[in-house]
Specification:
Layout lengths: L1 E6 L2 H11 L6 E6 L2 H4 L3 E2 L7 H10 L4 E4 L2 H5 L2 H7 L4 E2 L7 H4 L1 H10 L7 E4 L2 H11 L3 E5 L8 E4 L2 H13 L10 E5 L4 E9 L4 E3 L4 E7 L3 E12 L6 H21 L6 E10 L2 E8 L6 H5 L8 H9 L13 E8 L16 H5 L4 E5 L2 E4 L2 E4 L3 E9 L2 H14 L18
Helix pairs in contact: 8-9
The structure holds adenosine-5'-diphosphate and magnesium ion.
Amino acid sequence: MRVMIVGGGGREHALAWKVTQSPLVDEVFCVPGNAGTAAIARNIPADAADIPGIVSLAQEHRIDLTIVGPEAPLAKGLSNALQSEGLAVFGPTKDAARIESSKVFAKNLMAEYAIPTASYWVFDDFRNAISFVDEKGLPVVIKADGLAAGKGAFVCRTDDDVDEALRKTLVEERLGDAGKRILVEECLVGQEASVVVITDGETVLPLPSSEDHKQLLDGDRGPNTGGMGAFSPTEAIDDALQERVVREIMLPAIRGLKEQGIDYRGALYAGLMIVDGDPYVLEFNCRFGDPETQATLPRVKGDLVPVLLAAADGSLKGMKIDLEDNHCVCVTLASKGYPGRYERGLEIQGLSECEHLDNVIVFHAGTKTTKGSVITAGGRVLGVTAIGATKKDALQRVYDAVDRIDFQGKYFRRDIGMRSSY
Ligand SMILES: Nc1ncnc2c1ncn2[C@@H]1O[C@H](COP(=O)(O)OP(=O)(O)O)[C@@H](O)[C@H]1O
Ligand SMILES: [Mg+2]
């Protein structure tokens, strides 16, 4: 069969890496992909957000399954467009993707189906919001309703923080339509972790738990980024808690959507805060996480393609996902300056040396190939990933590999998987 993967980051390289290992798969296309996917699949230089363009590609290349990586095309209805041409797609429809594309929608769903989450209040007016927060007291979390590429959530500890968050969203509309409506949330204190499930709208199969490091600097300090690394499993979620997450969060969400006439097919990601041993939802994403996917897919035993296909066509019942009993750590190598301005086009050295290391996989994110060499093409450049029998073992391997790769301005965190809370 022929598979197309939409997107071009580390998540999509990890998906391509897993899918190309399937004996069912003859050919994999990545749109647009990166230098890493080019080595194992066929890249097509098209825009992942161009819905009619993607549908034409799927027809032209007689694609049997399209897997959508990022949220933006899902929120715009890529899955609907593919389905209406009779094409199989892994990823929710536009209505189902609202669980990520509208945080108010997600919160209302959680309230309706008693899914544990922080209390929340919705505003579209600056004055009303600010006087509410004055009365309620700090801290609070302020969030834009719509998609904001990780820039729409503000943890506010001072009046100035509140003022700035509300001005950015409601007054200056710096997040555009996404910030015209906001949520004020109760601030939860606990340990963050995530669980992703694959679902066909009925059956729910969990992938391994993981934890990511969003902040730029060691010690979880500095600005938020798309993700500086991740590891799996996380100590914050044992088997019993994972089961509770499925029972108390994932199944009620999927069944709640179904009750509203929405059939959710694809990956459902829950960003969680574990408070005194109990899981609360911070947010849902309608897709696999990045970089969590790089740290979880290498732990999946065997072929994932039958599961992805079954999720797409609604026949997941009776299937399972087997996991390796190991640990995986992914360290992001970023460009100097990221998440602000950074240079592109810098040559990357040491990649071929890492290909020969045992239990190490270098997933590409912002890379491309020119004249036979691989150069940087984004803020997050590579996701260096290693597997080990223990986390310590995986950490040793991953940082050994990180040291062998170089490009001008290479930046990474030295403390991935080493939070002081364990
Ligand atoms: N209710 C909350 N209490 C405490 N921290 C929160 C809360 N909601 C979000 N956060 C923090 O803000 C981060 C981003 O929020 P999230 O809802 O995941 O938005 P997004 O990923 O869309 O930016 C979370 O990872 C968490 O650290
Ligand atoms: Mg988040």
